Amino acid sequence: MKALSQLSPALRGTVRAPGDKSISHRAMIFGAMAKGITTVDGLLEGDDIMATAQAMRDFGADIEKRDDGQWHVTGCGEAGFKTPSNKIDCGNAGTGVRLIMGAAAGYGVTATYIGDASLSSRPMGRVLNPLSEMGVKAVSQEGGRLPATLSVPDGLTAIDYTPPHASAQVKSCLLLAGLNAKGTTSVTEPTLTRDHTENMLRAFGAKVESQTRSVAGRDGQTVKIAGGQKLRATHIDVPGDPSSAAFIIVAALITPGSDVVVENVMMNPTRTGLFETLIEMGGFIRMDNYRTSGGEVIADISVKHSKLTGIVVPPQRAPSMIDEYPILAVASAFAKGRTVMDGINELRVKESDRIAATEALLVANGVEVSSTETGMTVIGGAGAEVRGGGLVTTHHDHRIAMSALILGLQASNPVSIDDASMIATSFPSFFDLMDGLGAKIELGS
Ligand code: S3P
Questions:
Q1: What phi and psi, each to the nearest 5 degrees, are found at residue 74?
Q2: Please, are residues 198 and 185 in contact by the beta-carbon 8 Å criterion?
Q3: pLDDT over 70 at 383, yes or no
Q4: Enclosing domain of residue 301
């Protein structure tokens, strides 16, 4: 299914950010591990989360949506995960597969994991290597890719691990495995990555120790979890996803006359790097009504059309905005001067090679951009014409698809994308919500 976006009038209105994808995955997985019924409000009902929910059913949890919209997860508790009778299909979701591998390994079950073309091309060695050190036997495709079959011949033993990449998925996988390992598992990260696993494990009654420390001259942390702890069901209120709000916010910033409020956005500092960056670029972005919901701080964000100026984005900020570089690159195309993004080599192994895909997106639409192995520089036209007219290849990547459509809102010629179907993995309401604000985005055949 293709889609096209074109020059749009001022965007106006108040919308609610869709549920956070990271928290939604975790609510399904932790709920499935826990004893009792976990209730979840505001779940992101995207394809990625539905794949994780199905995987949890395959391992023995009971998951259903009630008529009032609340999700109920009856966890496996003491019995633990059962050996699934089918392959575990994680669809497009790196977070899903990496966290589930860790959780399931702790129960000693054998399972084969598969995914779509994008997920099957992504490196799993980053979790399979440390899991193997803990006692997992993994048979995977070349380079640790899916399909992969994991078994646990003799149970898991805790390890102390320092991941070579800043990755919340790796940290989370090992903490979940560590929950059912012999001994205390520790993960040391040189740069803080999103801490939802630590926070939510605590909400489910586990003891998790986080110690801030300087690692390689940076503000990192060591997280420790003792094996043998049991999770107890709880209630989760899923806050709005800052990574989805990012598309609405950039759309409003680049579209003259816009005045938009995005309600209920999670403000966890491990996730808000893009907002900080856009404010430094001169964007009018104001947070109001700070409150706490489901253990996370949330706020309503007001955003108005603004004249943006390019900046050098500090590389150490990358983990707190790792999914937002494609949409930042779009904002940068409308800014004055250069926006330099470095230290973002992790983008090469996301749903697509996001440095290459973003560069191609911009080039196809007449924006000047250059890249290195670890970074990208966009030369903005300061609001001068962005030509547009390109057909963007999305490579099964939802964030590339939405970024291209947002660029088209202020390009001189319509921008089209080859496939819009995967937008539903993280932001199923994208088309309706943008339409409600006045954006001209159409789904085609
Ligand atoms: C996520 C972690 C990040 C992020 C992904 C969600 C998570 O991946 O890109 O969209 O929920 O833990 P990495 O851990 O690979 O950086």
A1: -90, 115
A2: no
A3: no
A4: 3-19+240-443
Judged against a pLDDT cut of 80, whether residue 218 lies above it is answered with no
Domain containing residue 28: CATH number: 3.65.10.10
Whether 24 lines ligand 1, by a CB cut-off of 6 Å, is no
| CB distance 22 to ligand 1 below 6 Å | yes
Count other C-beta atoms under 10 Å from residue 44's C-beta.
Answer: 27
Q: Is 399 in the pocket of ligand 1 (CB under 6 A)?
A: no
Report the residue among 167, 196, 425 best suited for mutation to probe ligand 1: largest number of ligand atoms under 8 A from its CB: 167
- pLDDT tens per residue, range 3-23: 999 999 999 999 999 999 999
Instruction: Outline where 367-429 has alpha helix (H).
Output: 398-408
Phi-psi sector, 303: left (phi>0), alpha (psi -120 to 50), beta = beta
Residues 91 and 131 in one domain: yes
Res 445 pLDDT > 80: no
Active site residue 323: yes
The residues, ordered by sequence, that sit 6+ positions from 50 with a Cβ below 8 Å of its Cβ are: none
Question: What is the distance between the alpha carbons of residues 257 and 61, in angstroms, rounded to a whole number?
Answer: 49
Q: pLDDT digits over 179-208, tens only?
A: 999 999 999 998 999 999 999 999 999 999
Domain count, the chain: 2
